[in-house]
User: What shape does this take?
Amino acid sequence: MHCFLQNQSMTAYTPTFLIGSNKNANVVTKDVSAVLCSIRLNECEGSSIAVLESKGSKGYVYANGRVIKTGTNYVLRSRDEVLFGSLGNHAYVSFF
Assistant: This one.
């Protein structure tokens, strides 16, 4: 999975990518749940798909301007944009 985090590019070599306030998260952001959301790679008919799952209750998760409610999944596609964080403190990710 290759993504751009604000002005920084990163490639994730993990099947589950965690975003939250936990120091062990792949992307750490303040004032949100320990695990706000995760992005996992799933195999589907011979190809990989990235699935965003909103997990936390403290903070927000948006995909392409749409709120992703806690406990729901969203299939990410190339060029999707994800915004997560809390009021005044957020991170932006774009997937390629």
